């Protein structure tokens, strides 16, 4: 199998095994968006289910649920009881877990597998995209353009629920999603793996049409509210913008993502 796109010095992650489609996101049967109640959430954690986040009532003290969540790296938010009551009127006992509609992939395995296939990596990093429908639309375009994986932060990202699955038109069944604790460190990992990182924002000066997308590339798109964080902007290899001719100063993030991804496709063709 060809491996000519593997950068010099690149090494497979320790313990890597060539996947057999096992990082694709298969929908979970009879999945519900939330699980509530201390024992129910605890059993969900013990079963190894993918959980986006757990909300815990502020007044509650030490819980076994919190320890399990810490060990598995699941975000926990302390919230007032009123917020939990707005989510469900049933007896939540101060604990609600949001169950993901997908299984997350390991970024190291995705990158290694792409190189093993002799393909040129094309990855999409979403910095705090919080709107579920924006995320679903982005995933749909990403799958259509051959993106190998979407990378999201473990905190501050849209919940991948039934709405996201529906908006993606099923794309999330086939497109790996990787959840990372620290996007700054993720960018460094990608760069060390021979992948250029391109940040796209309307605030930048270089035109996206001047970027070489034929090389291994990860594209960063920023949040609906404030775009890409300054820390990430300082760490990337290229800063690019989509040229605007009208009076409106910006595009919806899902539309902007489609524009830049199809420019990458055009360059690679």
From TrEMBL:
GO cellular-component term (any): cytosol
InterPro entries xref list: Alpha/beta_knot_MTases, Ribosomal_eL30-like_sf, rRNA_MeTrfase_TrmH, SpoU_MeTrfase, SpoU_subst-bd, tRNA_m1G_MTases_N
ATP-binding found in the keyword field: no
Keyword entries, A-Z: Methyltransferase, Transferase
GO biological process, one term: methylation
Biased composition (Basic and acidic residues): 1-17
Protein name: 23S rRNA (Guanosine2251-2'-O)-methyltransferase
Organism field: Arcicella aurantiaca
């Amino acid at each position: 199998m060809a491996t000519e796109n593997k950068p010099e010095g690149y090494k497979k992650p320790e313990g890597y095994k060539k996947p057999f489609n096992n990082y694709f996101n298969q929908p979970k049967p009879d999945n519900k968006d939330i699980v509530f109640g201390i024992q129910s959430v605890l059993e969900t954690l013990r079963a190894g289910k993918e959980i986006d986040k757990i909300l815990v009532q502020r007044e509650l003290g030490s819980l076994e649920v919190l320890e399990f969540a810490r060990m598995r790296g699941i975000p926990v938010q302390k919230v007032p009881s009123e917020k939990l009551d707005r989510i469900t009127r049933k007896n939540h006992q101060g604990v609600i877990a949001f169950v993901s509609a997908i299984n997350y992939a390991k970024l190291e395995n995705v990158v290694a597998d792409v190189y093993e296939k002799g393909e040129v990596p094309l990855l999409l990093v979403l910095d705090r995209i919080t709107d579920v429908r924006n995320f679903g639309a982005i995933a749909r375009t990403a799958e259509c353009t051959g993106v190998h994986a979407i990378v999201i932060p473990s905190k501050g990202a849209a919940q991948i629920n039934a709405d996201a699955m529906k908006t993606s038109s099923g794309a999330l069944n086939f497109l790996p999603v990787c959840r990372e604790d620290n996007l700054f460190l993720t960018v460094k990992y990608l760069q060390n793996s021979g992948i250029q990182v391109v940040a796209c924002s309307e605030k930048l000066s270089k035109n996206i049409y001047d970027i070489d997308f034929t090389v291994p590339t990860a594209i960063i798109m920023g949040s609906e509210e404030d775009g890409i964080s300054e820390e990430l902007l300082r760490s990337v290899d290229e800063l690019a913008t989509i040229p605007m001719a009208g009076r409106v100063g910006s595009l919806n993030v899902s539309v902007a993502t489609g524009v830049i991804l199809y420019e990458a496709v055009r360059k690679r063709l």
